[in-house]
Design a protein that fits this description.
By secondary structure, the protein is mainly α. Helix content is 60%, strand content 7%. It has one domain. Strand 1 and strand 2 form a beta hairpin. The chain starts with 17 loop residues before the first helix and ends with a helix.
Length: 150
């Protein structure tokens, strides 16, 4: 069935560049990390438990970080797929807005770390989140400097 007869157009992914795919993919990997990968691993005898960033203690930091990352990805998608749509922007720059959101997400991850510094308890999810948070901020910073030059 032809979708154009129903008023629905297929999604055009040509508007998304390689850097956008990398940024969005990094954000999605960070969301998966925060929700599912073990941040804390606790063992007592034959029993062990793993907790994700959205679990206690202070799971609200992980949940807020996930929401901020999803807002960052949504901001990118709106700009690329519907550039005529006006949404609030920090300093009238979409790239600056994404940098601010990525920085807030990284701050929330850092706070989760600072509130519970126990290097022996940190699992794979924690170390992955540190790397992915830094990468997300770096990519947003690079995109902002590219947008400033344009």
């Amino acid at each position: 069935m032809n979708t154009s007869t129903r008023g629905v157009s297929p999604m055009n992914t040509d508007a998304i560049g390689r850097d956008d795919w990398i940024f969005g993919g990094t954000g999605l990997l960070l969301v998966i990390d925060l929700l599912f990968l073990p941040w804390f691993s606790i063992s007592a005898g034959p029993f062990s438990a793993s907790l994700s960033a959205s679990d206690s203690p202070d799971g609200w930091l992980g949940i807020l970080a996930v929401l901020v990352i999803l807002a960052t990805i949504a901001d990118l998608a709106i700009e690329r797929f519907s550039p005529q749509t006006r949404v609030p922007a920090f300093r009238d720059s979409r790239a600056q807005t994404r940098l601010l959101l990525a920085s807030v997400a990284a701050l929330l991850v850092a706070l989760k770390f600072l509130f519970h510094i126990h290097f022996s308890l940190f699992g794979l999810g924690f170390w992955g989140a540190i790397v992915l948070s830094g990468a997300l901020v770096f990519l947003a910073l690079r995109a902002r400097s590219t947008a400033d030059r344009a």
